Fold each of these.
Amino acid sequence: MTGISPAVVAASKLGLTFQTNDGPVQALSNVDLTIGKGEFVSFIGPSGCGKTTLLRVIADLEKPTSGTISVNGMTAEQAREKRAYGYVFQAAALFPWRTIERNVALPLEIMGLSRAEQAERIKRTLDLVNLSGFEKKYPWQLSGGMQQRASIARALAFDADLLLMDEPFGALDEIVRDHLNEQLLQLWARTNKTICFVTHSIPEAVYLSTRIVVMSPRPGRVSDIIESTLPKERPLDIRETPEFLAIAARVRDGLRAGHSYDD
Amino acid sequence: MNWLKPSWQALLAIVLCVIAIALGAMSKPEAAALADPTASISYPYLGTKGLMLGLAIVAALISMIRIPSLVEAIVLFVGAHLVAWLLISGIAGFEGTALAPYFLLLTAAWLLGWRCVAVLSGLRPMASTARNALRLIIPAIFGAWILIIWEAVTRGAGIPFILLPPPSAIGARIAGSLPVLGADVRQTIFKAVIFGYVVGSGAGFITAILADRVPFLRRGLLPIGNMVSALPIIGVAPIMVMWFGFDWQSKAAVVIIMTFFPMLVNTVAGLAASGHMERDLMRTYASGYWPTLIKLRLPAAAPFIFNALKINSTLALIGAIVAEFFGTPVVGMGFRISTEVGRMNIDMVWAEIAVAALAGSVFYGVVALVERAVTFWHPSVRGG
Amino acid sequence: MDSFRDKLVPVTSILAGVVVLWYVFAVILNAPFQRDLDSRANETPGAVEFIGKTLAQPKPTLPAPHQVAVNFFENTFLRPITSSRSLVYNAWVTLSSTLLGFAFGTALGIIIAVGIVHVATLDRSLMPWIIASQTIPILAVAPMIIVVLAAIGVTGLIPKAMISTYLSFFPVTVGMVKGLRSPEIMHLDLMHTYNASPSQTFWKLRVPASVPFLFTSMKVAVAASLVGAIVGELPTGAVAGIGAKLLAGAYYSQSIDIWSALVAGSIVAALLVMVVGVAGRIVDRAMGGRPA
Ligand SMILES: Nc1ncnc2c1ncn2[C@@H]1O[C@H](COP(=O)(O)OP(=O)(O)OP(=O)(O)O)[C@@H](O)[C@H]1O
Ligand SMILES: [Mg+2]
């Protein structure tokens, strides 16, 4: 799959060093990565290994200090200006003074879409994340899981082919998380978007991804890339199959290797 | 062309200088001299006009060359201030005769000063001493330019003295009236303000502690205190003057009333600020009310208490000065302001205001320093 | 509203306590003068009659609450509103310059705050002065502004309003700078991912985020504005306004008049703060604020 379609994200020799008051911090070093269209790529690794930073570089929220990055064949900045991706932050980051509907409308207003088109897209994306009926509610009237779904809807409303998600379900409980994982997979299957997904959870990464990028810290780098052999159709109980457990074991080994390398 | 980096300030400054050159005479005497070359009329900027225009243009041009920011800032700083100094010192003896080119040149110099501040604002030095120095230098230049423009405009345009005296005249007045100003400060600040501040803040603090012991009192006093804080308490001044006479005691009484409520409200709020977890911790130590208060709750309340002390430092000065408008013995800052205003000695009023401003800042600064020493552990202090 | 009922009883009992104390002090403070009067008139009233007299002096040291209340009632409701002794009229004079100054001060404060947030040079050079100026007793400038402006022929509403403007723009500037800077980094990043223009970020994020800060600082500003208007009435021997009433009361030792002018000023202040507070709450509710 990766070989045939043109790369959505291509990073080569990517490095990023933060200049801080206590000296430079190397957050990323020598990252080579190609993500093809329609892939679901998870990034997993210990805290501080640069997952967020990598995602932010792809989103042009951070400039790399070495190497190159291209998104949809353009520079990251051009891609951002073309509004090539939707970004989901770790927290829902909804505007408290806007209703759910107006929150989803925010990127559409900024793009300058007509009222009618806005309404149409809001309805479609809220349906997609199962939030129909909550249009007029304010964020604080929704549960944490619903807020996070609203923020996914906001990212989807953009209708970009690339979705960048930074631990979107990190703060949620297991049950809600399972549910959202399932919904996310369905959404991905339906829309054929490319998704980059940061997570701390091995089962989540294995359950969702077509590829799992294992990262290790100091300096942040890619230590392993694992292709998933699971079928595209994945019921929740696929997580008890030997195949699933084998991939999970490989990811865990990758993570351990990254750590022992460090000590 | 990458050795050039144009800035709108420098470009505009050059344009203004060119217009000034085209317009010709800087002052009315110069215009008269130009009109009648045979008459020997003395006029300002005989030898310095070309120098000033040249300096401004050269500084503007140099600043647009791609040179290190620090060098650029120094060039601009020197250029702008030299021009301003020449301009102001040259108008002496010819006040009120300035023509348009004078103001154009002043504006050009100010633009260079602005550019200088902009360049300095853009610097991001690594060393913390340099950063701190910049934090002082940038506002200092800004303040200096307010004075420069004030001086140059009042003198160049000949604004009537009673409307707005130039800062140099105010400075001279301060220097010449030190004994009077000193006596006023002693009367208003060392008697009324300090006494009232200490008693008022102390009473507010003690009341807050009492209120803390009695929840009923606390629930009632907090809304009342919040309400009263918004009222024009200053209006009690005439009553206090009736009760306590013209001398400083009545002013101190006004200050006490004005400082009482902010301290009360803030201390009550601060005593509620310590976290439940810490309070429960003290409970597990079987610590009584007073040890908990002293070891946990007062330190936690310190930022609030200091906030009140800072608010009160300003309120106390205002209270004492305004109360003096209602009657005083013939000394005191408020008295001086109101009588000298009546006599149209506006420079003396400004001198008194400058002293009041200085006193206010020093007062506030002392409280802030004590706060830093006492609440060194608080995030807002540690952060910077 | 549980918390409201929680407060109601303590507040009313404390206020009742204040009134009782007030009466006690009125008797104590007015007693010496009354004794003086009685001995001069060769009267020896009984205790009850004596107390009654201390609470009914025409120019008492401390007027009793009911004397103030009666004076306030007469001057508020019984006089024609156009009368120069009417408190409504005087309060209106002060209120009008308060409101004018407050409006200008708020507008000025917002403009300066927007400048400071968007122009780094202003932030670094002007902001420290704004903070420092908070420590300066600016009310001291009031008489000069009034007199100097009178000297060039500007009198009446404008000079007082200028003092109010001056006093009210500081809190608004400081509050708005805080408010416009209050959006979280994540929200700013979000706008960045949308490639939003600076003006879009300003209107859709910074402005709504600053609204609560605006109203909080407007409450402080409106109170300061009223104080400015009152003090602005002192130096000119202004003919009308709450400050003028205070001054006239002080001049003729009409203590009851002073107190009722004070009550009027306090009511105006409370109303102003309340109106701003209610407006703030309405706006907050309209913007989806969570009910407290
Ligand atoms: N703005 C910044 N300035 C300085 N250092 C930073 C900045 N952002 C991140 N870092 C550093 O870069 C490294 C990588 O951070 P990053 O946030 O990408 O980690 P992460 O893998 O997302 O961790 P987590 O799983 O905890 O979210 C860390 O060491 C962090 O301290
Ligand atoms: Mg992260």
Note: Chain C has two domains: 2-61, 87-286.
Amino acid sequence: MAFVNLQNVTYQYPLTKTPALQNINLQVDEGEFVAVVGPNGAGKSTLCYALAGFVPHFFKGEISGTIEVAGKESSKSTLDEWVLNVGLAFQNPFNQISGAKYTVFEEIAFGLENIGVPREEMKSRVEDAMALTGIRDLADRSPYSLSGGQQQRVALTSILVMRPRLLVLDEPTSQMDPIGTREVFGTIRKMAEDGMTVVLVEHKMEWIAQFADRVVALKDGSILLEGKPGEVLTSDLLAENGFGSSRYTSTAREAKKRGLWRKENLPVTLDEAVEGFALTLPFSSPKGAPRGRGESGK
Amino acid sequence: MHERLSFHIKRDSVIHRLNPLTKLVLILALILIAFTFPWYWAPHFLLLLAIIPLGILGRVFPEFFKTATRLILPAASFLFLMQAFFQPIGEDVIFKFYFLDITQESLMFAFRNAMRVFVMVSAFTLFLLTTHPSELMSDLTRRGLPPQFAYVIISTLQILPQMQAKAQTIIAAQRSRGLDTESTFLKRAGSVLPLVGPLVFGSLVEVEERAIAIEARGFTSKNVKTSLYEIPDPSFDKFIRWSLLGLVILSIAANLWPS
Ligand SMILES: Nc1ncnc2c1ncn2[C@@H]1O[C@H](COP(=O)(O)OP(=O)(O)O)[C@@H](O)[C@H]1O
Ligand SMILES: [Mg+2]
């Protein structure tokens, strides 16, 4: 059975009229890296909260269906047990700083102190996690003195250090530059290869296409489409439903209308775009073409 | 943004190495003795023979001196003047200023009280200079202080400057949309209202997110918590604490002794 298993999950926040999640069925295997996309208000964050136990244990409201992770059912667990298996980092890094610690090192150790990890093990785990996300040089800084992108790395590290079996990330790179985003995606990919299951909400389609195993497209609380990144992210259904697409996809879609894109599939990444346009544009030379400038996200 | 959000000065000294609870007991003992010991010169004596040597031993004397002269001394002087003038005791007027009399007694009384306050604030300053807040809280939590309580104290200490910075940002934003924050008091009082919304509503959302974030990091776990720092509590520290407790009891007893 799947490591993560959501069956007919419908959830409505208190005092709201429409459900934020409607009849969600989602299975994720252990070690799989699933990306979730969708327009604002689609229910992406709510889905993250549902996976991480905060729906329904923290946000009240009405829930039906079952949420299982690692063979345990959320409604039969308590939140403090649940978070040992499922780690959550979300978008706003400032609010994820515990506020109880004076240095980044202490901040990352906070979770381990809470769950009672012995001191020596704690130190080595914090060191390892900081090395993994490339923030060793921030160890003695105050978490409040960091830039947004650095704070996001600290927030991610603070969750990674707890070694959850399922890692849920809600737009964890929103304040990072392209280089930072690429590094973080690389780290997450590596964690997935080492067996951690990852569910990631992200807008940066090119990065999803390069790193994720599968994409789930959410709209109005329901799953609209699900499948391989290359297929989902280029589908017309998504374009018609107000999902953003990568600039390469948009360009190629326009080009296709004018007969300048001959391949069957639209590209998501720069490399795919270069490859496709090389077939139609006589003056392009895919090998010697200058690269790098267009590699940013969004 | 602020890099340093605590008074603590990281140095290695005998005082820094004391267990945080010992330091807490030490300053409380100094304060209690200054206020209860029935000898007139007790607070003066404590300042010279305890506070100043502790500052030197703790290698924070320059910082302490700065705080003492810029902050504590003016406050204590103000207190001294108020009490010297308005304390209606004694006959022996030595100085007259319109209807205000200063008597020998009121002068002595005011001097001692100002000195007591000086000792009290100085002791706290020394404590803050030589004690890391995280270490204090870890130690007290280990001794049974509820972690939620420790969390509230530390995070409040840290969040205050953040709130201040945020209020500044909101004011700047509202001002750029034409909000008047600089004219007469009444107008300004009225124009502060639009600030309350973002600050309070923003804070509520923040509180919710922060609660989620610390919960996600096992804050309410039922496991026995551990601490990143090893905070030693040798028997020497225990001996100091018990001795101090004894001194305080003696001082209070002497104070209550029918004379
Ligand atoms: N705490 C809350 N209380 C009530 N309604 C909420 C709350 N959080 C989100 N919602 C609503 O649930 C829906 C889904 O929101 P969300 O999961 O945050 O979407 P997304 O992350 O995809 O932008 C929205 O209609 C939103 O207004
Ligand atoms: Mg969201």
Note: The longest strand of chain B covers residues 93-97.
Amino acid sequence: MTGHAPDATRAPGFVRTYLWSTDHKTIGLQYMLTGMAMALIGAFAAYVFRMQAAFPGASVPLFGRVAAADYNYLVTMHGTIMIFWVAMPVLLAGFGNYLIPLMLGCDDMVFPRVNRLSYQIFFLSSVVLVASFFVPGGAFGGAWTAYPPLSANSAYSMTPFGSTLWLLAVALEFVAFLLGGINFITTTMNSRAPGMKMFDIPIIVWTIMIAAVLFMGSVGPLVAGAVMLLFDQVVGTGFYDPARGGDPVLWQHLFWFFGHPEVYVLLLPAMGIVAEVMVVFARKKLFAYRTIVYSAVATGIISFFVWAHHQFVAGIDPRMASLFSVTTLIISIPVAEMFFAYIATLYGGSIRFSTPMLWALAFVAEFLIGGVTGIFLGSAGSDIYFHDTYFVVAHFHYTFFPIAFLAAFAGITFWFPKMFGRMMNETWGKVHFWGTIIAFNICFIPLFITGTAGDHRRIFDYSMFAELATPEMQSLRILATRALLVTLAFQVVFVVNFVYSLFRGTVAEANPWKANTLEWLAPSPPPHGNFVTMPVVYRGPYEYSVPNRDEDYWPQHEPDEPADPDAPGARRPLQQPA
Amino acid sequence: MTGIPTGRLAVWWVLASEIVIFGGLLGAYIMHRIGHPEWEGQAIHTNVWAGGFNTFVLLSSSLSAVLAHQAAERGDGKSAARLLLLTAAGGATFLIVKAFEWTAEITSGFTIGSNLFWSFYYTAAGLHALHVLAGMVILLFVAATAAKNIELHRVENIGIYWHFVDIVWIFLFPLLYIAK
Ligand code: HEM
Ligand SMILES: [Cu+2]
């Protein structure tokens, strides 16, 4: 991928360059491409189970007739894959690895070999997960939350191997992200370019670093819980078995103590991408930089105190339920604050609706729907009704779809020129955007309605429920499925645009968007070692449209006083023809 | 930027992620223990003397890790390596005692599946023993490089990790053995 000759001390062959590389950019792209490949599996699963929901009993093209057990494992694998093998690798590991050293102005992560190990373990975890489709009994079907007793006892789950492989794959994935996270954190703390102070760090680096800390702080108890679940499955302990003194709700606590911070682990990098894109296409300084950083930190801290809102109907103490309702409502404050800051950034800017900007704006609009519907689920009273209905499914897809796809597309279309040295096609980018956005909303709005009318989630066949199998309800389900087919069809546009631009796109200069952050100083694509001369930082990342300057942007690496142009080492702003 | 050497910083972050793993496990155990006063009747079958001896062994091995760090600060890689080997020997002693202890318990019928107390007992102590084992392997690696007087900063880093393993045991010992 590097069009430049890597430095002479190492003349890596194909394997060293693409498969066994310690270069953060290669590792980032490996994570990203693996995540995108897994997204195909996750989306295929959604296609099959949505077809079954709309046309129960019909033979689904490319799959065949869906049995009840198939439905269960498809839903489980869809959720598991989309969260752990798509959103995590693309947003956190993909963008994190690719961008952190470039934006901090250093040549690589501080522990490149640990980084390589991280990807290798992640790859192994993907292989284990995919392998679990093919073992006797089939893949695990006990939902991505893997509640015991279903997950603990193969007499109930009927997937003796599938459950264990699922657990193993998730555990390996956690190890991979812990290793990666240590790199993110130590690199950000210790190897920034000279002059880059704490509040000169771009927002996306902040959010990814906070996400890594959150992940590290929340996943531990679940690792312990996973060991206990594994022992329940294979050595016959009874940690989660009430008949033997154990407690199935313990797993729910351990799972959601991780699971809720995890949604912010995914949201924060997405917020970071959106911030970087917005400032560039609004040509305006990011509004309230420090408030955004503090809000992100506050969100992270509060996210450790909301987990039991997933357990309002699990028999927890009602006093605890009110407590967790309150914390849940409180956490919406810092998140809303970040969104307000973003909207204020747009106000008065000179906005250009390029493809990355469209994705970023759509992220804000769509996530808003997810956030507002979350209020109903965070309040114990209304959640008792909504719990485990399609209202919940629609709610969290209005958060996850913007995160995993809208923000990811914003990031990919924005940094594509840096990554591959070519521009993506704008027209096809916009076709892809509008097709996806419109179809996505038509897919999920009906699910709010069916959920409110009582559709329970994870139901294989509604024709078994007379009061839900009405023609009106079924026509909403069919509408949602049709819209999914359209959403999926429009992804072909993206894939074609991606591959075509990779080889035929217009060649990109180093800084095609006229952006300030340091990655745009490096050549496109950056060679091994990233920068021709290592940058020095003179200011924050968001100095756009500064009065009394010819250019409407002011890169972080440009010295304050345009020094004597003839002085040795003096850097002059790139002279663009007016 | 932070002034903390990167290697040491990474060790601290590893420990942070480890603390929450043991924290989750022990938190779950403590909650169960409070709910099940009758576990006392199981806990009396643990061997406090073996556990106490092991506590002493681990604490002493932490002392030699500190001395190794001091030697490394002086630039004396040879004695640092020797002291690290002593530390690893402490770890080995710990595991050998543990092996005898577990054999005795298992042959008396207290296995990981017996009941929830023993499930926690073997899971927590087993996870800790794995950390001891991993620590020993790293100790040997670091001793090998320190003996050649290179990468002496690693002596301190493995020392920090070893103290952590020690401290986890300081929590496990009263919770699993003494609380009756
Ligand atoms: C491609 C578009 C998508 C569609 C059409 C879709 C559709 C669905 C539907 C209908 C369900 C509920 C199935 C049931 O309960 O019977 C579901 C479950 C789920 N989806 Fe999606 N989804 C999509 C993308 C995503 C994304 C991007 C994520 C996360 C990043 C995600 C995460 C989940 C999770 C966690 C579950 C719960 C699985 C479970 O119940 O165990 N989905 N999806
Ligand atoms: Cu939550």
Note: Chain B touches chain A at residues 1-2, 4, 6, 9-10, 13-14, 16-25, 27-28, 31-32, 36, 112-113, 115-116, 119, 123, 127 (CB under 8 Å).
Amino acid sequence: MRDETAGRKGAARAIDRRSLLGKTATLMGGTALGGVIVPLGARAEDGANLPPHVPEWSREQGAPILAHPYGLPSPFEKDVIRRALPNRPTATSASSLTPLQHLHGVITPNGLVYERHHGGVPAIDPAQHRLLVHGLVERPLVFTMDDLMRFPAVSHIYFLECSGNTKGWKTGPANLTVQDTHGLLSCCEWTGVMLSTVLDEVGASKSAHWLLAESADAAGMDRSVPIAKAYDDAMLVYAQNGERLRPEQGYPLRLLLPGYEGNMSVKWLRRIKLGREPFETREETSKYTDLMPSGKARQFTFLMEAKSVITRPSGGQHLAGPGFYEIAGIAWSGHGKIRAVDVSTDGGVNWRSAQLQEPVLAKCLTRFRLPWHWDGAPALLQSRATDETGYVQPPQPALVEARGTHSYYHYNGIHTWRLAPGGEVTNAS
Amino acid sequence: MRASRIAAPLLALILAAAPAAARFDIGRPATPDEVAGWNTDVLPDGRGLPPGRGSVKDGAALYAQHCAACHGAKGEGKPMDRLVGGQGTLATATPVRTVGSFWPYATTLFDYIRRAMPFDAPKSLGADQVYAASAYILYLNGIVGEDAVMDAATLPKVRMPNRDGFISPDPRPDVHAKRCEKDCG
């Protein structure tokens, strides 16, 4: 009897707490559940589940196994989800953003990997999916998924970033979160067969300098890829983070071009055609070209240059008061490994080296951290990545000076979060 | 790197000893029919264009029925992409990128409409219709005349206004920042 009452009261409290969290999130713009960063030991609670009391969940059986045959995150994490930028004219040529502010380490859980589709997510029966490889080859071949999974497999952890990630050419609104500014970025362990293995199987001709990768989706999304990339580290991927690809990530088969703009890692891959020259598709002429102030546009700009961002504290979060905080974030480079990340709390006047979490892998997110004592004064938080080629992530004005403000793609400038004396963190880039 | 570019003599030796070394014998030969059905990409020189033809006049009717609701009666856009105008704006403070002002090849227009448009029924148009839609959009942009007929011979010959508007190879890294540590401006 007493247990039952306690249980009911407990449930009511849990709901109260959830609506309280909800209110906090609303106050902060609705996108930042758990956005209050509290220094150790400062959180207020009603106390019934806290020491010295025995919490309600310790006094009854928990949920049975297989309550969710495919497991789900805790209901308390319900706001850790992908979100879309507002005002997109269609829901199928659209994108959704990874909630980087809520992630830890470097792996993006499969359900949170960002999306960019040009014709929605096709529902493909893997038994009816085929990959055709043809063009300048000795043997045009058709592969089933079973065929592709018989080839020797490899697994690698690589980031994937849309080249339209971060519209920093002009300063954005103060209420942006890091999900808004940098969320077209994810990192997974990818498993599949090296593209070079399949090209050897079809007997690729030496006169082939480019290949066309084409999707089976409604958009027939297609891109030209230089053959050197195909023989370097390109993969045909059928699994991510240990399970088969998610539909929105190209199930059952996608191309994966490490370090290149995400659009080229064509999803729902159905055809590879080898040719002498680029195919000049819509996605490499009308889009994904970088317009310069001269009126000319750079074409075939594939690599994602070194970039970093602080994810904690970041826009929409709130520091509860002066005290110890760890500044944490992620850095990455399409050229290879991250060599160093520096952090500034004074808007770029003075910098300190952050710690890099090992292992540091090429073309993979690298987590950086820096212990920090906030004295309560206003601060401008920035991070700056240097990669193994010695390339240093530039400040925004240097990028604008070189490329103007209309090139749209490939923005990798240093990002600034403003920390106000009250503890609010807002976007300042 | 391709093995063949590293050590050609060594590779020749390996190939002579075991010609099938690189092969797993996985996959099956593609039939000419299978290749023909999927091989729909179109190159700037016109390779890949199918038989058929379409006029500006045919295109006007087709466009009004299948495209105007999303791209505007004259291609002015809203709610979806603008298809017309913007020539001469690329180097200004407000560049407008459209088929007419920005696309380097008319063949890409055919290729893209055939694979992706109309957005609500992609791959539903026949070759004649795609030629006609392409002709009409080129006409709306002032690139071809109102009597123009597009087919595999005429379309690749259309010279787009921004044909020479692209730069490659990639000139990056084009920004060289320094790793300053103290009292940085």
Note: The CA atoms of residues 1 and 178 of chain B lie 32 Å apart.
